[in-house]
Amino acid sequence: MEVLKNKFSGFMIPLVSVILGLLAGAIIMLFSGYDPILAYTALFNGIFSNTYVMGETIRQFTPLILSGLAVAFAFRTGLFNIGVEGQLLVGWLASVYVGLQFDGLTPFLHIPLAILAAAAAGALWGVVPGFLKAKYHVHEVITTIMMNYIALHVVNAIIRSYLLAPGERTETIHQSASLASAYLQSITDFSRLHYGFLVAIIGAIIMWFLLWKTTLGYELRAVGFNTNASQYAGINVSRNIVLSMVISGAFAGVAGSMEGLGTYGYMSILSAFTGIGFDGIAVSLLGANSAIGVVLAAALFGGLKIGALNMQSVAQVPTQLIEIVIALIIFFVASSYLIRWFSNRLNKRGKI
Amino acid sequence: MKKKYGFLMSAVLAAGTLLSGCGSADNNEGTQNEGGGEGNKNDFKVAMVTDVGGVDDKSFNQSAWEGLQKFGKDNNLEEGKDYKYVQSTAASDYQPNLSGLIRDGYDLVYGIGFLMQQDIQTVAQQKKDAQLALVDSVAVNENGEPLENVASITFKEHQGSFLVGLIAGMQTKSNKVGFVGGVTSELIKKFENGFKAGVKTVNPDAEIYVQYAEDFASSEKGQAIANTMYGKGADVIYHAAGATGNGVFTEAKNRAKNGEEVWVIGVDRDQHEEGMPENVTLTSMVKRVDTAVYEVSKQTMEGNFPGGKVTEFGLEEDGVGIAETKDNVSEDALKKVDEYKEKIKNGEVEVPKTDEEYETYVSSL
Prior knowledge:
Chain A: It comes from Exobacillus caeni. The complex is a heterodimer. Chain A is mainly α.
């Protein structure tokens, strides 16, 4: 009985948070002189009204799933990986590099190779904070944030010195490394939908399997629950911390390859962070750090972001409003204690 | 009687809109047009997509929107329907924004800024019927041939930068001037080299500090760079850095409050306002994105869409120049500006665009 109830509240809190977030967004719109009904209709149409926007929505949430998985995976081991953004950038560059350098491979070899390169680069960026944490107890929040900036500037410097093409970017990758598909584009009226969404789903399955069906996953989760107890039980805590950051970084790197091999097919010199890595934190929080939760949360946020474009175009509501709504949703999830208290209150009343 | 008729008309149209319900966006928009417009002779619809700087960047996005607003008002178009802007918060938004406006039936869609080049090129090749315009860059296909359905708009920024360089070179007291660039690129290099050439022409001994923020949207970086340059003794800084340049103004104003005499040269629009109340704007290099947007919109509405062509706005077309507000510019400097304006127009002076051209220009002085 208790288990059932827990499962129910695990689903209910995100749901209530989303509804409250949208309601609060409507109130803000009312106060700022916009029409919330028109805006939300436009938002909805901007996600579902035609195949183009549906394709774009899937395209938008593909990397979000993977960055969400990256954050969630580290979180299961009790680590806050704020460095997903940086790991994503190096992954993006690595995938583009492999896509550019190897010519004449079949797609069946080239694409996995490029994705693996991205995973390796992300893992490399994750191993540094993992090692510092395990060996010297340097807090990973500090180091991962710093690694983000290192990644941004190193990646820009590499592109500028070695891979520069006209337009402040790299050349476009070879067709054999591209996840883009003429077929998917033709059924979605030229959206940038690509086969990356399959990669993201596979990623979610891998995360679930690794955490719940293997000894390694059991150890990782044990470390997340209580490091001292794990140590006492004979689990090598340091090794697990490093490993967790490596796997988390690998997910983040693959998220970057979705942009490199799918959406763009190249990498631009970035003047600022993409935000996909930071959104991953929100996704994993709303998704309660579970694989299926992350997929659903990413779909929601991806949809909101694409729908926001139409909302702006039709109802003149700034796209920033959606950022506020997302922030509010996270706020309500974080203050889930309040929601739980209310629902317990209601349940008790019902019984009496 | 007329009123009643109008009401009936709109009721019928409203019913039509409702009934057509799931019809494509184009049809809906079309109906609203006829219903809402009073003096609306034609149903020309034009829209622009901003880059990540946003429509209030106090720079070229804003300037483009001002041009579009003027065009809309002059032709009795309705804002939000017949002419409007859509902002992009991330680079990945460019393509859906452009495609969305085309699907909504806009006759002409602008992409503002060279950051949008790739996306314009992609969309233009997918939607052959669409009419697009790209500001600050030239749209081409894979073979480097111009795309027939894109009007490319570029500016001779080096010419305008040369003129403000003359002013900077003449009015600096410390003989040290600075240039703050946004992102190292072919485009911003035109600003840099034009400016440097202008300074050196009138003041060969002047020292010129050049630094790029590698960011168009970080006023903190702009402020930090300006702090260093003013600290090293520069008293005039020219910025070509979009919103990053706002930090240069902040720093200059802080120093002006402490009694230092420092100047900023604005970019893209007349940035006199940005320098107030401390009055630190020496002049601005104006790039008439608004004129360009207005002109191309007008041509397109009249059926002369300049697709596949590069429309270049230079001194001759009044596309670039120095700002209207000339309060802080000395008489001598203005005379020099007029003198060189003529020389550039009649080809006597060829203003350098690239680093190599600059080297040759300076050695020829």
